[in-house]
Amino acid sequence: MQQIRQIKVRDLEFDCRVAGDPKNQAIILLHGFPETSFMWIRLMDKLAALGFYCLAPDMRGYSAHACPKGVKNYTVKKLTEDILHLADVLEADKFHLIGHDWGAGVGWNVVYQHPERILSWTALSVPHSRALGKAIKTDPEQKKKSRYIGWFLLPFIPEIIIRKNNFEKFRKLWKNSSPEELANYLTVFGRKQTLTAALNYYRANFRGGNKWPIGEITTPTLLIWGEKDMAIGRAAIDNNLKYMKGDYTLLALEGGHWLMQTNYLEVEKAVVGHVTKYRT
């Protein structure tokens, strides 16, 4: 049975969903934008039933007591450190890692910086940061798909527009979510600081001069991508292979960006196969 556990990391306290026996091998699951750990509930139950211990935090900015003010507090470096500190609390020297969207963006960095700690890595929707960055610079389709990022970098205006009509724009993104999932998202984003904190992921990491220190990946990697993804095009996915120096599998699905909601069974099958293959 899943529970909500508060885990304190330095001066922050993360709201985390946990499932399974804490004595079992750990899997950490990282949500993206604009979602929360709720997105992982079904998969966590499946993985826990297979003998894993799952932890999915509401990440920095999304947890009520882990929402510091200021763009500087949302760099990939700080987001990466959060995940490693959570693993330390679990006493998980080695663990499996799964991430979607921004959770994948952070996850790639965790895997690159600390390959000795990651047993397997599964990225949903978002490829290696440099693969995506190259596509944004050189591929017309990706440039078009990524235009929203420039808008998110503006101060105040995105918050005002996104909050209109009770998050009408976000509701369109959440159209495949269950009523319970939708209620959770609206509760979290209804907090005063959460939306700004979530947008600060972009503001802290996509402005000039903020380079992500990331290179070749040796960890066994599964990348799951939807061919109709509204944010990530084929060029970025094709670029990914250049950085894969270990076991690597690409699974392209007939789906969009929100694969956990629209292609769940395919995702579950692939993830289960991947983590069990590299179980120790």
Automatic annotation (TrEMBL):
InterPro entries the UniProt entry points to: AB_hydrolase_1 (IPR000073), AB_hydrolase_fold (IPR029058), Epox_hydrolase-like (IPR000639)
Coiled coil: none
Keywords: Hydrolase
MF-aspect GO terms: hydrolase activity
Residue ranges of every copy of the AB hydrolase-1 domain listed in the record: 26-260
PANTHER family, per the entry: EPOXIDE HYDROLASE (PTHR43329)
Protein name in UniProt: Alpha/beta fold hydrolase
Species assigned in the record: Shivajiella indica
